[in-house]
Every structure is written in structure tokens, then in C-alpha cells.
Amino acid sequence: MEKKALIEGVSTLEQRLQTRDRVFTIGDASAITGFGMDEAKQALDRLMQMYDCRLKVTENGDLIYDFGSLHKRGERTWAEWWHLTQLWLWKIFVFLFKIWISVTLVVYFVIFLVILIALIVAMMAGNKDGDSSSGSSSSDGGFFDFIGEIFRSIFIWNTHTPRTYYERDGYGYDYRSYEPIPSTLAKVRKKDPQKSKGFVASVYDFVFGPERVEMTREDQQKEVASYVRQNQGLITMPELIALGGWNREKGEDFFSEVIVKYQGDSKISENAVLYGDFYTLARSQSSGGDAPIIYYWDEYSPEYKLTGNTWWRNAGVIGMNLFNLSFATFFVTGALNQADIGIDEGTSQMLSIGLGWIPFTFSFLFFLVPILRYFQMQPLRRKRYLENIRKRIMKAIYLQQSAEIPLETLLAAVNSQAKGEAKLDKSTVERMMQELIYDFNGEIAIQNNGQIVYKFQNLQEELAEVRQLRSQRGSSKDLGKIIMDSQDE
Fold it and tell me: Which whole number is the average pLDDT over 163-173?
């Protein structure tokens, strides 16, 4: 098709979208544009590059392009802008408050350092007749190196390293966490720095909490690309859900997103199964740079931690801030004015602000922020708990590879696969299946004896169909002999 004709056809379809007629078949597009079926599909695919689209397939094998709310691809909604604004405001607050924390720590550090130096000088003066031959500059150097490390750690605002390790929560779910910045003391004493979190890092995490290990949308796209490249360039909706854990609606959106990003082609098989064909993406000579493929259920969601510190470290941080708060309150309440120490009114006001209201506000926010975060985290923790249950049940459904699964069988399969996770009861599984049955396009049936049975006929047919399609395509990645090289003369 000529480029000009294709552009005009896409423009015609785009005008139709403005009339709220936003669901098309290829036949609809052909009738609207006057194109043949192949050309109409090209126009719809081009339109899908411009707008978010949910791809669906009917039981009769018709491919439906649903453009829904007519949202331009890559353009943020008002809700997304508001969420982004909140994130930026939070980042600005964190940045400014960390500067405040740093300055406060430096001030106290300088005070303590002056005291330490004064003590050392006094000890040296009092012991001037001691054994000078046993002295060593290396020991003093080690001490001041230690002091320097503490000073530098105040300005290391990132409280974790890029490395991760596994922890286990109270329900027995293993999840990844970032390794914290190790203690300066552990470094000097040559202990394992990964097992001792630095005090300054603990101070920052007390206020803002440790960062969670999470996959970005780009990570998920790369994972799909790796899966496609290792599976003959083909992928179906159930496989996409298995990788990312999407619900049905978000899965359909993401399916079209990767189709556009990796220049795939949405196709319907002879048995009415929708699949993505990424033939070009699968053609390669190496898979060394591919992202790791981790199924949704093979890695539990990380915990929402309030501080990530041990209880005794939190006690130390709380004690430090209580001291600051008490000292600041002394100046805020005007107790200094009541003491007859000969300070004029102007100096008293400066001390009230500098040593009173400023550190008082700091210490108050130091406690207020984690308190507010605690209440914010409660619904997130509940959501995370349910998501991990969803992972376990989804895994059992896939591994059963059966079109019909009784509730009792599913419950036994979920609990038998547990490796330290808390056992689930029947009511929990039944409630979660109300959601999963829709995501997998399944059905719930009740037999004559009252037993609940979950039917996944479509799921098993789709998985069987893509296996057949892959076997027909084969696994050869031979690119053939090079017949032209840009450096050839």
C-alpha cells in the first residue's frame, strides 16, 4: 500500500474514534476506509501505535481492536500526572529533609569531635613522660580514618547497595531485599560489612524507610522479549499473564504495548487463539544479553518495611532524637529566660529560634514522617499479602495442566507446593479464585454433590495451540550465510 493512502486511511479511522465508535474488527476498518482486509489490518496496527488498545478475540475467531477511552499511547492521564506530582513532591521533601538531617548530624559530629580531640590532647599532655618508643602513628591514623569514614557516611544518602539478598516474612514468603550500606565500625574491625547496617543509614531509613526491590515496566517488557526469543517468537495471553501477573484488562493493554514496541504482529490461529508473532525479534545469533525469565509466581512481592532496622538500632535513633527534642523544648518554652544568666533579650530570641524552634521542628518531623508512613503502609501490606496468595494459586493452576480443577484439588496442590509458606484455607482460595477465574477466561461450576469445580478449557486450549504453532515453526535460528557486507568494496 502506498504511504499516502495508508495515512489517509488511518486518519479516517481516527476521526471515527472521535464519535465514540472505538471498537473495530478488521472488517469494520475495511468498510470504513475502503481498504482490502490486509490493508485495513495495517491501518489498525498503525492506529494501535498511536492509541492504547486492548486486543480481544471472539469464540468465532474474530480479532477485536478496542480503543476504549481513546488514550494516546505513552501520554499520561490526569491520574498519572497527579501520582507523578505526588512522587516528585515526596522526592523534593526527602531531598530537603536529608540535607537537614545531614546538617544536624554534622553539627553534633563536630561538637563530639572537638570533645574527643580535647580529651586526646589532655591525655597526651598528662602522659608526656610515657613510653614514646611504643607509640605508632598508624594507630592514630586508624582512629582518624575511622572518624573520617563516619563523617563521609553522613552524606551518603542512598542507604543500600545494588546487591540483593533474600529475607523471609512472618507468613513464610521469601523475598528480595537490597543489602544495606554496611556499618563503618564493621569495616574498621574487618567484620562482614553486609551483616551490619551503618548507623547513619539507619537514621535515614528510620524516617523514610528502605527502598523495595521492584520490577519496572521496562524490566517486564525486556522479560517478555527474552521469553519470545526463546520460544520461537510466539507468545499468548496466558503466557503473558504468567510472566507479569496481569489481570485480564491490563494484560490486554500490555499485549498491544509489546506488539507495538517490538514490532510484532497480532494473529488468530485456526482454532481461534490470539497470539503475538515476533518473528524478527526471535532471529538472532546470540541470547547472551537477554533478561532473565522469572515467572510471576516464582518471586514473592517484597515486604513494606517501616524502617528495616533492628529494634535496638531503632531504640538508639529514637533516643537520639528524643534528646534533641527535649533540648529544643527547653529553649522553645523560654526556660532560658527564666534563668538569671545575664543574656539580653535579642540573644535570647536568637537562641530560641536557632536552638529551639528549628531543632524542635526537625525532631517533630523526624517522628511524624514514619508515623504517617505506618498508616499509609497498612493497606499496601494487605495488598501485598493477597498478591502473594494470588501467585501461589496461579502457579498451582498452571502446574495442574487440567481443564477442570475441583476446589479441594486446587487447595491441596497449593499447600503441597509450600516451602515454608503458611497454609491456605479453603475460603481464602475460593475468594481469590473469584478474580483469577476471570483473568484466565474460565468458569465456575457446582456439581450435584455441591463440590465447586473450576474450568479452564480456554486456558488449556491456548497453551496447547501455541505449543503446536511452535512445533510447526521449529527452533532453528540459523540466519544463513552472509551475502552482503557494508564493508565490502
Answer: 90
Residue 365 is inside which H or E element, if any? helix 358-400
CA distance 315 to 294: 39
User: How many CB atoms are closer than 10 A to CB 472?
Assistant: 8
Q: Is the distance from CB of 223 to CB of 291 less than 8 angstroms?
A: yes
Residue 259: per-residue pLDDT? 92
CA-angle at 274, arms to 271 and 276, nearest 5°: 130
Identical topology for domains 1-75 and 382-473: yes
C-alpha 459: how far from chain center: 28
CATH of span 1-75: 1.10.10.10
Contact 454, 430 (CB under 8 A): no
Sheet holding 443-446, edge to edge: 404-406, 452-455, 443-446
382-473 is a CATH 3.40.50.1400 domain: no
Taking Cα atoms as reference points, which of 212, 167, 166 lies closest to residue 383?
212
**In this predicted structure, what is the pLDDT of residue 126?**
61
Statement: residue 279 has pLDDT above 90: no
What is the grid cell recorded at 137? 602513628
Instruction: Delimit the domains of the chain by residue range.
Output: 1-75, 80-122+139-213+305-374, 382-473
* Site of grid cell 514473592: 300
pTM of the prediction?
A: 0.77
What is the rounded average pLDDT of the residues 51-79? Answer: 83
Residue 194 has pLDDT above 80, yes or no: no
* pLDDT at residue 425, rounded to an integer: 93
pLDDT for 433: 93
- What is the grid cell recorded at 385? 499479602
- Measured in degrees and rounded to the nearest 5, phi and psi for residue 411 equal -60, -45
Cell digits of residue 195: 551483616
Does residue 394 carry a pLDDT above 80?
yes
According to DSSP, the residues that pair with 182 across neighbouring strands are 197
What is the enclosing helix (H) or strand (E) of 55? strand 54-57
- In order, the DSSP letters of 430-460 are HHHHHHHHHHTT-EEEE-TTS-EEEE-HHHH
Question: Nearest 5 degrees, angle CA 470-CA 222-CA 285?
Answer: 60
